[in-house]
Here is the input.
Amino acid sequence: LKKEVIPGVWQFGDMDQAVNDRTRLVVVDRTTWHLGFTIDVEAVCKLAHAKGALVVDDPFQALGAIPVDVKKENVDFLITGCHKWQCGPGSVGFMYVRKDLIEQFEPEYSVYGNASVGRPEHPRIQNCPGEFGQLNHDNILSYNYPYVKTAQRFEMGTVAGDYLAGFGAALQYLNNLGKTDIEERVRRLGGYFIDKLTSIGCKVNTPVDPKERHGLINYTTGSYDNDLKSCLELNDHQVAGPMLRYQGGIGGIRTCVHFYSVEEDVDKLIKLQKNLMPK
Ligand SMILES: Cc1ncc(COP(=O)(O)O)c(C=O)c1O
Here is the structure.
């Protein structure tokens, strides 16, 4: 356990207490949306698996900023949308299910896409679910068919293909930049931002350790009223992104730096924020 307890940041000791032999599922935000507290999901999986529980990872605030390796980490389920750090369009997301778990779970509904309808014996379509345009897609007389054996058994119908194409382009762009280069830059800029905030007297709520955060930074000027005033002022000056919300009971101003941010963006915010500090 760490000496200082930060609200909104839990320790593995806490989890060890909370997860027991009756736990079926452990659900984690890889990076929390309010604080940017980023956890070691591999360690979570190890702990949960030791107690016989499975892990659902929500990396909505992490994927695109830091690399995620579900195989190495032994993640069971991962569910995410793509319009945040992955820079993809809205309305698109995906789910990952560990391969050996796919057939252990059944979808909530049977649809034409996940029913293993008697397929024509053609190697190309034999194992395909009945997508539009496939033979037999419209000819399902009953749903007493087994589900397909692939992760497509969890699809609920037509997928948003045009959004997926946009997401594909975003992924290609991110992959060309390089996952580890993005990570290095985001963590470094996050550190730059934290140092500057601290130097003007803000209290940074996000853990300082780069292993426990990336570019999502939450800070306070000391009071809700002044945080609100600061946030409105920053937004008025087109400093993109600062938000003040209930923030999971933690409070503070949430701001993010991604790979496309530059030090000057941080400096601009800091200059404005400095003038908004309580006298
Ligand atoms: C960690 C996390 N998960 C999921 C979501 C998406 O939630 P919803 O689909 O309800 O908008 C968000 C959005 O802010 C998030 O931060």
